[in-house]
Amino acid sequence: MRQLADEVTKSGADAVIMIGEVWQTRADELKPYERPADSPVRTEALALDLVSKSGEPLDFLAKIIREGEKVSLGNTEISEATASFMFAPFYQVWGRQVPQA
């Protein structure tokens, strides 16, 4: 993230978007020390995290639905960002305080 923050500085970017696939499992369905990616009851989703020089960080999440060869996305859920600490290097180069939540 520090290397990407250097690119934010070089390019003068005012926002960063990170998109990726995530595995999900309810906490009560996990065995001790098991990660969602290793769980047989996992589901997959497409996640997008947005942080910006101004404004609040946001998380977008849409379940990936697989039906044979057909792949689609479920409804998009939007929430306040839950992993803002991960983006601390961006906040630092923008001169912003890292959100406490």
Please characterize this protein's 3D structure.
- The structure is a single chain.
- This protein has helices at 2-11, 88-94; strands at 15-24, 43-52, 58-67, 70-80.
- It is of the alpha+beta class.
- The chain has a single domain (2-94), classed as Nuclear Transport Factor 2, Chain: A.
- Helix 1 (2-11) runs parallel beside helix 2.
- 7% of the residues are buried.
Give me the secondary-structure topology:
Elements: H1 2-11, E1 15-24, E2 43-52, E3 58-67, E4 70-80, H2 88-94
Antiparallel strand pairs: 1-2, 2-3, 3-4
Structure, briefly:
The protein is α+β, with helices and mostly antiparallel strands and 101 residues long.
Strands of the biggest beta sheet: in what spatial order?
Answer: 1-2-3-4
Radius of gyration: 16 Å
Mean pLDDT: 91
What is the CATH class name? Alpha Beta
CATH-derived topology: Nuclear Transport Factor 2, Chain: A
Separation of the first and last Cα atoms? 19 Å
Based on the coordinates given, report the CATH architecture.
Roll
Order of helix and strand elements from N to C terminus: HEEEEH
Total number of distinct structural domains:
1
What is the beta-strand fraction? 35-45%
Throw out a few tags for this protein.
alpha+beta, elongated, single chain, 101 residues, 2 helices, Nuclear Transport Factor 2, Chain: A, four-stranded antiparallel sheet
